[in-house]
Amino acid sequence: MKFRHRDRDDDRAELQMTSMIDIVFLLLVFFVMTFKISAQEGDFNVRMPLQGEGAPSDSTQLPLKLRLVSDGRGQLREIILNDNLSFGTDWQKLRNYIIQTIGEPTGPDDDDGPEVEIDLDYDLHYEHVIEAITAVTGYRRGNDIVRLIDKIRFAPQRK
Amino acid sequence: MRFAKRQVKQAEADLTPMIDMTFQLIAFFMVLINFSQSEQNDKVVLPQSELAKPVDTPIEYPIIIHLTSDDAVVIGGDTISMEALRVRLAPEISLLELEGKTPADASIIIRAHRTAPGGRVQDLINRCQELGFEKFALRVKEEQV
């Protein structure tokens, strides 16, 4: 009996890869083009109900009043604490003073902790406000963040 | 004259390693892509802070407001004036109320340009306070040491 010889190569099912590779490369190009390396972002949380509701719960504990004076062009001219202590423009001095004043950090969950009221000139650049918040909120020790004061509010606006 | 038929072998490239690598690259970019980029605004350069750390838990009911250096307020891609803030936030407040929440439950995330006047940020906060918002987050960028 004679068998019909069939070429084995004919049996191979060939997948059509071209369209898949096209799509895959398109996806790759999309992701490469939209990929953007950006610095991490974080938040400073400020809880500020309308005035009256946001008054300190303990009237014996007055907030630290931090006055930020602008030079008229938005740059910082002076940092004054409680109307009598001037730190020039040195945030580190302010931070050291706060560490000395409040002692060991109280931690973020301490509701009775001190409060800072920031009083700024209208035209002062926002980056200086953030510097002030950074200086009073805490500092970095290695990879850890040591918390100082978490309660921050703004004084009524100056025009 | 009869010629012998020669079978020409088709050259086939082995695509498997290339497809493997391509899929790995796609997976890499898909994992790293940050869709929150859409929350950002090219006109806003955030101030830096050494204490900036990404939030561990997602903020509930966030409303992102950008404040550019030319005093424009941007919400959800709409550039508005400070005076129009009340009108623009009205739908957001309605949405909150539909879910049984109040503006006090939402968080306003302020992304202000680093040279924007601090008083302007206070303006923004004051106007949001008038609408009943209480929780504010001042967004900053991690300081490159």
What characteristics describe this protein?
heterodimer, A: 159 residues, alpha/beta, Nucleotidyltransferase, domain 5, five-stranded mixed sheet, two-stranded antiparallel sheet, 3 helices, 26% helix, B: 145 residues, six-stranded mixed sheet, 6 strands, elongated
* Global mean pLDDT of chain A: 78
- Briefly note the CATH topology name of chain B: Nucleotidyltransferase, domain 5
Hey, roughly how much beta strand do the residues of chain B contain? 15-25%
Helix content of chain A: 25-40%
Helix count, DSSP H or I runs of 4 or more residues of chain B: 3
| Biggest interface, CB < 8 A | A-B, 49 and 53 residues
The termini of chain B sit apart by 84 Å
Largest beta-sheet characterization of chain B: 6 strands, mixed
Instruction: Give the name of the CATH architecture of chain B.
Output: 2-Layer Sandwich
Question: How does the major sheet of chain A shape up?
Answer: 5 strands, mixed
- CATH hierarchy class name of the domain at 64-154 in chain A: Alpha Beta
Principal-axis shape of chain A equals: elongated
Under CATH, the topology of the domain at 64-154 in chain A can be stated as Nucleotidyltransferase, domain 5
How many β-strands of chain B, per DSSP? 6
Shape of chain B: elongated
Corresponding CATH architecture of the domain at 64-154 in chain A: 2-Layer Sandwich
Give an overview of the whole structure.
The complex is a heterodimer of chains A (159) and B (145). Chain A has 159 residues and is α/β, with parallel strands linked by helices. Chain A has a domain at 64-154: Nucleotidyltransferase, domain 5 (2-Layer Sandwich), CATH 3.30.420. Chain A has three helices and eight strands; from the N terminus they run αββββαβαβββ. In chain A, the strands form two sheets. Chain A has a five-stranded mixed beta sheet with strand order 4-3-2-5-8, with helices on one face. A two-stranded antiparallel sheet of chain A has the order 6-7. In chain A, helix 2 (91-102) packs parallel to helix 3 (126-137). Chain A is elongated, with a radius of gyration of 31 Å. Chain B has 145 residues and is of the alpha/beta class. Chain B has a single domain, classed as Nucleotidyltransferase, domain 5 (2-Layer Sandwich), CATH 3.30.420. Chain B has helices at 16-32, 85-98, 118-130, and strands spanning 48-49, 62-67, 73-75, 78-80, 107-112, 135-142. Chain B has a six-stranded mixed beta sheet, covered by helices on one side. Chain B starts with 15 loop residues before the first helix and ends with a strand. The mean pLDDT of chain B is 84. At the A-B interface, helix 1, strand 1, helix 3 and strand 6 of A face helix 1, strand 1, helix 3 and strand 6 of B.
